[in-house]
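Researcher: Go.
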Amino acid sequence: MTKALHFVASDSVEAEDALKRMRARYGDAGADNCEIVVAFGGDGFMLQTLHTFLDHKPPIYGMNFGSIGFLMNEFREEELYDRLAAAEPAQVHPLRMVATRSGNPVEALAFNEVSLLRETRQAAKIRILVDGKVRIPELICDGILISTPAGSTAYNLSAHGPILPIDADLLALTPISAFRPRRWRGALLAHRARTRFEIMEADKRPVSAVADDKEVRDVRSVDVAEDRSITMTMLFDQGHSLDERILAEQFVD
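Model: Structure:
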């Protein structure tokens, strides 16, 4: 069945060229009238597209013009309607970050992860509370992140965090270069957990908080919880679903 499509692209030359060709071939219903968004770019552009269409919430089908393309499908001009009809959906929920600094709190959403990172040569000191209970009185580190299942193969995996199945009701809490407690490797949290990070010695050891591409500098505390009131859908080619890709990542060298 033919769907009303809207095409978007990153600012790379290759992606913009594909955008022109695909619009000429399939037409474009526009952002407000589309049933499916087709995005040309890399994984970062897929995250940007998810944020862009939070109000409308159409399914998003990505075609890769980036370096990794974990969240994207292979680019082909032909048989797009057939690919979309057979595509397998993956539903994702974002994390909601509330970062407090000297001014008003700043809210942002993250489909991959919320990360806290030291801003200077000084290691960060962070107190971690889960559901109001102190779990780590003082983490000395380069930073820490909390990841969704969709983001568990991204920065979280690079920081030696666990890979989570896409339908797991879990979040990964992963330290970045932890100095003390030296042997703490992180934790798995229920998706409903409410995590609070309190920055210790914040003036001496400043920390920034990043939710996907939104950065807040010099934070004093950061609260993170999954927002299940928001559901976005990504589409993947048949046989190459997101849960299959996440599973396959656990069996590679």
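Model: The first helix runs from residue 13 to 26.
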